[in-house]
Amino acid sequence: MPAQYAAPRHLSNQQLKNPLIRSAYERLSNMVGYRGQYLRRLDTVHGDRRTRVEKFQVIERVAEQLLVRLDLATGILGYIDPGSGRYVLNTQRKIAEDSEGVSSPVLCRLFKTLDEVGYVYRRIERIRLDEKDESGLNLVRTRVLIRFTKQFWNDLGLRYVFERVQNAAKKRRDAQLREIDQRRLTEFERQSLAQHRREVSRKRWHAKQARETGGTGEFPGTQAAVAPSCNAQPDRGFVPERVTGNAALNAIRALRAK
C-alpha cells in the first residue's frame, strides 16, 4: 500500500491560484445553492423525479478532498510516484475518511450516480489476494479508477478553463516522465557498470589463481590425489598384517639387516 498522510490535506494557496481549482472549489462547495444552475444532469438522473438534496450535500463535503487529489493532466484521482514512476490511485475510503461526515458507502453511491449521468468514468478491477478469510476463501481487493469527464466540466461551466489548464499540465507531465526515464536509464547504466566490474574482477582473480598453481587450475594449498603406481616398492620398515610369498621373505630380511 502506498504511504498515506497522517492528517487530512487541504487546498494550498498555490493550488487555489489555479483558475480551474479555484472556480471548481467555489461552485462544488456551494452545490446546494447552485442546484439547477450547474450539474443539471444530476438533478434528473431518475427521470421525472428530482434527485434528493443529500447527493448535493455530499458533493459539498467532498469537494475539497476531490480537488486536492485531482490530477490535472489526466483528470484522474491519483498521482505519479516520482520514485518508482508508477501511477498510484487514491482510494475512496481515504477520501471519505478525510471528508467530514461522509462514509465510504455514501461516497461510493455518489460516484455510481455520477457515472450514470456521464460525469465520471469508473473502471473497477478486482484483485484476488493470497490472504484467506475464516471460511478459507481468498480475499478480494477492489481497485477503482475514477476520471472526471469533459461533460462534468462542461456542465460545471469550466470546460474551456479545464482544457487550457490540462494542456499546460500535460506539458509538465511530459517533462516529468522524461526526467523519470532519464533517472531510470542512469540507474540501469550504474548497475550494468557495477556488474561488469564484478565480472572483470572475478576473471582476474581466477587468472591469478591459475598462475599461482602453474596453470593446473588448482588452488593453492590443494594437491590432486596421486594414484599408486604398480611398480612402487613397499616400505620395508613396515610389515603388513598379512603378507605371503616373496613379500614376507623380503620383509624378514629387511628386519634382520637393521
Description:
The chain is α+β, with helices and mostly antiparallel strands. The chain has a domain of 173 residues. It is built from 9 helices and 5 strands, in the order ααααβββααββααα. A 3-stranded antiparallel beta sheet has the order 1-2-3. It has a two-stranded antiparallel sheet with strand order 4-5. β1 and β2 form a beta hairpin.
Q: What share of residues are in beta strands?
A: 5-15%
Fraction of residues in helix = 40-55%
Q: Which structural class do the helices and strands define?
A: alpha+beta
Order of strands, widest sheet:
1-2-3
Notable characteristics:
258 residues; alpha+beta; 9 helices
Brief summary:
Helix content is 49%, strand content 13%.
Question: What's the layout of helices and strands?
Answer:
Blueprint: H1 13-16, H2 19-28, H3 40-43, H4 53-68, E1 70-71, E2 76-80, E3 87-89, H5 92-98, H6 104-116, E4 120-132, E5 138-148, H7 150-155, H8 159-212, H9 246-257
Antiparallel strand pairs: 1-2, 2-3, 4-5
Helix pairs in contact: 2-4, 5-6
